[in-house]
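Exercise 7.
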Amino acid sequence: MELQRRRLHPDRHVHALGALTAALALTAASAAAQSSVEVSPLRVELKAAPGAATTQAITLTNTGSAPVRVRATISDWHLSREGAPQFGEAADPKYSASAWMRVAPPEQVIEPGKDGTVRFTLTVPGGTEPAGYRTGVLFEFAPANAPPVPRGREVQVRSRIATLIYANVGEPPAAVDLVDLSARIVKDQPLQIVAVLKNTGRRSVRTRGTLTLYDKSGAVISQTVVPDVPVLPESEREVAIPALDPGKPAPPPGEYRVEVKIHFEYEG
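Solution. The predicted structure, written as tokens, is:
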């Protein structure tokens, strides 16, 4: 594998980041998830100044056939190395904005086919240093006749979904490095190229770019898009990129060169 490590720059230009050779054998798979309550938006990006307050609304739509009890709570979160949101205690408290948040109402019942609204107010303390902070509103859903709080040893199964909130204060410099590039082969799934990005800055960024597959002669076989995903401040994460365009037939097994070009945009 031939790997080039380069710093990404905030000028939004595209940079070639690496190349590797791999044997390819692909299949396709898909998955879907459904819920009786739709939440919009699922992501909020705010630009805020120290001492400023902002209030926004989140809409919940009951698309099911029965009333639903919705409980809204403020929650810290972070991303796993693979990008899955993890809720609970802040992994890095200095980037938590949860103490700045208020939500109302904390609980409501939404009838079938109706909308509910939850408003949150975020107030940035004076003297807050420039950085990308984060918090979230976590929604738990239960039958309308379920008690607000379980009694004794009673167990309730609740589904949940969250609106992730990015609160960007000022404009600290961004710095992102590509630290690894490799092929991931999983049985009965398409080949993925995994780029490991390390954000050493104090603001979140989102990835953009393309992956191009070449044969031995240098001819382009296919081109795919780098997923639009966040990389949180002072964190490292994997970005899995499909190696082949799903709309085209897979090439025969052999040796191919992969070129990944990534640039990024600021959150907010």
